[in-house]
Write a structure and sequence with these properties.
Blueprint: H1 29-49, E1 56-57, E2 60-61, H2 99-107, H3 109-120, H4 149-169, E3 172-174, E4 181-183, H5 187-204, H6 207-214, H7 224-238, H8 240-262
Antiparallel strand pairs: 1-2, 3-4
Helix pairs in contact: 1-3, 1-8, 2-4, 4-5, 5-8, 6-7
């Protein structure tokens, strides 16, 4: 085995130095867009998690605060803030479980490939020089922790049910005079329902879920249910990037809508 491969005539040398490339196209557009988009979401969602005031409006609950476990709100499952909560720590109902959906996106195969390029330039794009020449993959700490992605997927499947539960709650309207609760639809109901659909589409397109659907079977023709599940997850997987960004944006849109309704800036109109 030769120590090095022979130089192929006409082959382009590997780029040396960060950003060095012989490409003439605007290769930097995609990683820059990812850098800006993810930065905006991280900053906004962090603020939203610790700002619960305005995250609820009647029967509407911001998806960033789903589920509401504790708090001074009728939506809290287990009552007010725990008495043992340290006074020096900021309090918000969303601090307990925001790590679950955040963990899914952080360890997602698509997002990993995107933010590795956008934030670390590893590499920023194909045939573009990296800021370093070594490659260690995800076999060492801390990136080896990305292997927990499958477990975040299990949690995310539960989260779909939670979002659908809150969408169901968004169809229950109380009469302002009698207090009687009845079925109805508002603009906020539609906004929350679309958010749940996009989140489900993103989760169902997960690469790990596709493998789980197919299992260890070499032939799916004899297992119609497994084949149906595999084909369904494959359909979503082919559109994983689109659902990833659409769901990310719509989480913020839904949170903004609920807050605008809560502050009286926007009027939530009843459709039904």
């Amino acid at each position: 085995m030769p120590e090095s491969l022979p130089q192929v005539a006409g082959a382009l040398p590997s780029p040396q130095g960060f950003g060095v490339t012989r490409r003439g196209d605007p290769w930097w557009v995609t990683p820059t867009g990812v850098l800006v988009g993810l930065s905006v979401f991280v900053i906004y969602s962090t603020w939203a998690v610790f700002t619960h005031h305005g995250a609820e409006f009647g029967n509407y609950v911001s998806p960033i605060h789903v589920p509401v476990l504790f708090g001074d709100t009728p939506h809290a499952w287990f009552g007010p803030k725990p008495a043992v909560w340290p006074a020096f720590l900021p309090w918000a109902p969303g601090v307990f479980l925001f790590w679950a959906p955040a963990g899914l996106r952080l360890t997602c195969y698509y997002y990993r490939g995107s933010y590795y390029k956008a934030f670390w330039g590893s590499p920023a794009s194909c045939t573009v020089g990296k800021p370093w020449n070594t490659y260690r993959g995800e076999n060492s700490f801390p990136l080896i922790l990305q292997n927990v992605h499958r477990y975040f997927l299990y949690i995310a499947l539960v989260w779909i049910g939670l979002h659908l539960y809150y969408v169901g709650g968004a169809t229950r309207f109380a009469d302002p005079v009698t207090g009687e609760v009845s079925f109805g639809l508002g603009v906020g109901t539609v906004v929350m329902a679309l958010n749940a659909v996009l989140l489900a589409g993103y989760t169902l397109g997960c690469h790990s879920l596709r493998h789980l659907a197919g299992g260890f079977l070499d032939r799916l023709s004899g297992r119609p249910l497994r084949r149906c599940a595999y084909e369904c997850t494959s359909w979503f997987n082919l559109r994983h990037m689109g659902f990833a960004w659409a769901s990310l944006v719509w989480v913020m849109v839904t949170d903004v809508y609920v807050r605008l309704c809560a502050t009286g800036v926007v009027t939530d109109y009843r459709i039904l």
